[in-house]
User: What shape does this take?
Amino acid sequence: MELNKFQELSKRTMPFGGEPKNNVEYENGLTNYALGLIGECAEVLGAANDREAVLKEIGDVAHYAFGLLTFLKETYEPLANYVVDGPKEKVIEKIIILSGEISEQVKKFIYHRHELNLSKMKLALKMLIKNLIELAKFYDSTLEQICEMNIDKLKMRYPESFNVEDSKKRVDTVQ
Assistant: This one.
């Protein structure tokens, strides 16, 4: 699955379809996705030695990263001059650091009433996604394959669109 297609498909489970009508919805969406991003990044670290679990968590991180890009009205374009190297532990560390930088920008915007540094946010998100692309390779996968699995999971969990009841049921995790 092409990554921009993933971004478009993920909108079906986003609050406000990724298109908030007012500033409160915009701030709530950013907060939701920034919190989700940092939480899922921590879960990547916890699952790093379990291939199936980490692939699921990488998909969840991608969902939140692309969701933030959507709220920022940005589509993903690869960074040509950004190189990711090192062992998987370093790549995971960088993903966590970037998610912290992103959530810090959102916190300052929402709660400290700073201007949102859009260029810094967009760059950090694109760097994070590039790290996800490289991390997937350590698990003999691609981010595109992982994103397709994530969309399949979300379609199972939310047959129509996001709703609280389906979020609580989590039918995709019932064994």
User: Anything to note?
Assistant: The mean pLDDT is 92. Helices lie at 3-10, 23-47, 51-71, 88-111, 118-138, 143-157, 164-169.
